[in-house]
Design goal:
By secondary structure, the protein is α+β, with helices and mostly antiparallel strands. The protein has helices spanning 25-33, 35-39, 134-142, 145-153, 156-161, and strands at residues 3-9, 14-21, 49-54, 61-67, 73-84, 88-96, 110-119, 122-131. It is built from 5 helices and 8 strands. Belongs to the AHA1 family. Residues 23-160 form the Activator of Hsp90 ATPase homologue 1/2-like C-terminal domain.
Length: 162
């Protein structure tokens, strides 16, 4: 299991997940840079993702939906802030209301920094999500973000082993 540590800090409004992969940072970067690869790991195994738009560049937007086993779609978006290939990128991640990817004002948006660094012959990935308030962080914790994100990240090992 790649995920080695998960911590959340309500005072700092952060959720941090650390994962180690037996692949170089450039290979982990490629998972996020290629929408077809990203679809295989964004979202837990029971809710596969489909990226409709994928612009991993500063100012770019990535629109996606996850599909439940019953066929229900859950929409989301990324608004890319910065890119430092292959070391990482930052983006805002939010929930959308519909297939037009209209922002859902009732659900939290997080600012995320994903970083990839060489570590023990592979890559240490650090995923930090920051929320506007402790209440927003608690809301996503209650929604199961730790379990869902961990299950999603743990899928990367199989992908990079191919």
């Amino acid at each position: 299991m790649p995920v080695t540590d998960v911590t959340h800090d309500l005072d700092a409004r952060t959720l941090t997940i650390v994962a180690d992969f037996p692949a170089p940072p450039k290979r982990i970067w490629e998972v996020y840079a290629d929408p077809r690869q990203l679809e295989r790991v964004w979202g837990p195994p029971t809710h596969p993702a489909t990226f409709v738009d994928h612009d991993l560049a500063p100012g770019g937007r990535m629109n996606y939906y996850m599909t439940s086993p019953e066929g229900e779609r859950y929409y989301g978006f990324w608004e890319v802030r910065s890119v430092d290939e292959p070391s990482g990128f930052s983006f805002d991640d939010g929930f959308a209301l519909d297939e037009q990817f209209t922002k859902n004002p009732d659900l939290p948006v997080s600012t995320n920094v994903f970083s990839f660094a060489e570590h023990d012959g592979g890559t240490r990935a650090t995923y930090v999500s920051t929320y506007a308030s402790a209440e927003a962080l608690q809301a996503v914790l209650d929604m199961g973000v730790v379990e869902g994100a961990s299950a999603a990240i743990n899928q990367i090992d199989e992908l990079v082993a191919e």
